[in-house]
Specification:
three-stranded antiparallel sheet; alpha+beta
């Protein structure tokens, strides 16, 4: 996921978009996840929309009359919730990608790995697996086998950390 400007330089319109591939096509497609309006970052959009929600009703009605494209207060509240969820998802994706880069860098190293580095690599891979399980759904909604697998991975990760 990334932020893209679909407007002009004079009137920018920012969107959070995501790439995906359609089977049989060479070029990836883009899907718009959420509109940020004229705000270049997710944080700026959150602060703007949550600021509107926190205002008193008379000020809100004035702002909504001046900017009819903002929608209703209920829509703005929904948008703030969606933006906060999106921010945490983008941060977790960024962390997962940085761990992936570190794992790939360690695996491609021409020097033999020490015991400590092998343990660190194993811990990173375990944490990555746990992160994927947590990201794909709420742990409480997973079946008993999946929850047991997560607990076992956490125990194994803790035991490896103690060995360091």
């Amino acid at each position: 996921m990334f932020i893209r400007n679909k407007g002009t330089k004079e009137k920018p319109r920012y969107f959070v978009v995501e790439n995906y591939r359609v089977h049989g096509q060479i070029n990836p497609q883009q899907r718009t996840i959420l509109s940020l309006g004229k705000h270049p970052t997710v944080d700026a959009a959150i602060s703007f929309f949550s600021g509107i929600v926190k205002m008193d009703r008379s000020t809100q009605s004035i702002i909504l009359k001046e900017n009819p494209n903002l929608g209703s207060i209920a829509h703005i509240r929904y948008r703030v919730k969606k933006l906060r969820d999106l921010k945490t998802k983008m941060e977790s994706n960024f962390q997962a990608k940085s761990v992936d880069r570190e794992i790939i860098g360690l695996k491609k190293s021409s020097r033999p790995l020490s015991k400590t580095m092998k343990l660190r690599l194993k811990i990173m891979e375990l944490n990555k697996t746990i992160h994927k399980l947590r990201r794909d759904g709420n742990i409480a909604t997973l079946d008993a086998d999946a929850r047991r697998a997560i607990k076992n991975l956490l125990k194994e990760s803790a035991n490896l950390s103690k060995e360091l």
